[in-house]
Amino acid sequence: MKFIILRQDTETSARLGRISTAHGEVTTPAFLPVGTAGSVKAMTPAELVDLGVEMILGNAYHLYLRPGSKVVAELGGLHRFISWKRAILTDSGGYQVLSHAKLRKVTEEGVSFQSHLDGSLHYISPEKSIEIQEDLGADIIMAFDECIQYPASYDHARDSLERTLRWAERCRRCQRRTDQALFGIIQGGFFRDLRERGAKDLLRLGFEGFALGGLCVGETKEMMLEVLDTVLPILPVEKPRYLMGVGTPEDLVEGVIRGADLFDCVMPTRHARTGCLFTSFGRVIIKNAQYVRDEGPLDPNCSCYTCLNFSRAYLRYLFLAGEILSARLNTIHNLSYYLTLMRDLRQAIMEGRVVEFRERFYSLREGVYNPQ
Amino acid sequence: MKFIILRQDTETSARLGRISTAHGEVTTPAFLPVGTAGSVKAMTPAELVDLGVEMILGNAYHLYLRPGSKVVAELGGLHRFISWKRAILTDSGGYQVLSHAKLRKVTEEGVSFQSHLDGSLHYISPEKSIEIQEDLGADIIMAFDECIQYPASYDHARDSLERTLRWAERCRRCQRRTDQALFGIIQGGFFRDLRERGAKDLLRLGFEGFALGGLCVGETKEMMLEVLDTVLPILPVEKPRYLMGVGTPEDLVEGVIRGADLFDCVMPTRHARTGCLFTSFGRVIIKNAQYVRDEGPLDPNCSCYTCLNFSRAYLRYLFLAGEILSARLNTIHNLSYYLTLMRDLRQAIMEGRVVEFRERFYSLREGVYNPQ
What 3-state class would DSSP assign to B236? Predict the structure, then answer.
């Protein structure tokens, strides 16, 4: 992996960059659609390419449990298995073990847990996570971290951070493949000094990129932005910065302005399936009765397949009827919205009008969001 | 609607024809994917066009209940509502009232029933069915018939047939729009004399096409073929003949050879969602363990998006993981199989090698099917 900065904004910390991988280039800042279990839900690879997606996210935890990372390796790796020719980043399983698995037990050595699929017993250590991710063969892989729940006590956050740092070092040491970039993950809860320490200690281990974990776990917007304002300025400019699990359209704008390069979130795909749709003027809850005879497009400012061809009335109907096409058309639109937002942000960085972009972005929206 | 015969096979009753509608031409014999409730499940209109679909089927019963045929009319009709620019045929609701509705009560006047969606009370008469179908605005609409269950007694089948004939006449009389072709439906169960009578009486009413209803309801293949052999020779050559709800790939081949022009069936789309896939060498149950590491395409003789891009191992995995992409890729393949079969049959008629086509079709398949 190679990363270059193409342009640094002068008024904000936003930067335009390019990650080069064996599976193509990724222009940053970029949003990675989440393909947890080997499929970005409701989408084909061809549709993702049409939307301009350059990298997707896969999950070590899910793919290890099913179909099994060894099976994926035998079938030629994740790219080939899911027929995705562009870049892939896999998460290490740290967060998923927290959020999905049952009977989780964390020790210094690793984490034992029960599969959420069938209750079978499993064990993932930093070494095992790297082995799984080497079997999957993504372009970027993540260190195995402990992601704590929110809220957490200072002592718990500190102990967990220290363990995550020791695990990060073990991940670094056991990595065998040389064609995968390994990113470290900064934890530390919502304690400024822990986040600072987490960042500085991780820097010394020398990863190819740095991620902020443990965000969007229930904290306020202000708390999240404080973490960004604390950590991002410490990170080396020449390495990509990844906000894991982030976030809303507003979060993306604020993250980009603070100098983040990569984002992933289930929000556009998951909300699509529950009928919550992102538009340039705010969110639309498509099941609402007001749309029953609404012939207009979901978002007149959008040129995705959904908005070009279907009315709000039809989208409402499909959602209420439980048609698969509802999930499809909604997902196409929400991903298009996210991808277009990132494209517009990149254009704004290129043209030196990031501050103006941010103002216009908020002024268009119904529920104006003003982080202090 | 206009129908012309382009070529009559000399060795069989198969014929190549063309139906012209205000929404384009349909080359026959043709298979109509089922878009019961305003969506061919898991497919976009664009994908159907890519597969070469020229006409789809919609359902008066479903669309009357939700979103309401008056709502569809206000939104510019079914074509516009679902964004489908090619031809549509709507079924009258006769069959759906039988198979879906609760507390059904049939009188000479019509059918009262409870909605399968919310238990609300409704009433559909022949006049009401035509009104619904005129509101929907399909290119071809169907007379409201009584479809009896199998098995049925001779007396029940006769009474029902006679009522269906009286209802057909009422449908003819109450039709107001002149831009929709009305097809009559021949019932009569599996009694040769009733089917003959049904066909002859219906002919006198002068419909623009004739359908055989009450097929694929649990009877044997031989019983179905006997009905085709009884009725199809009686029908006027210059009118399209439609086998409603038919059927398996074998049924399509046998129907075409006996001179049928139109077919519809939920089988390719519904089976796709349950993982039963049609291939040139028989059916594949994709969840079977034998495919866990199978890198080959589902059907090496198929050039659909699914077969060109994904392995059996991935299709098996997606099915077991319950991914929406499983329903999508399976539906694309199954519909492609059906559409390709019909295209190959049309080509065989054009080139005068229908008998040869039929022999090769059966010889390729694992479970050879030999109707006596």
Answer: coil
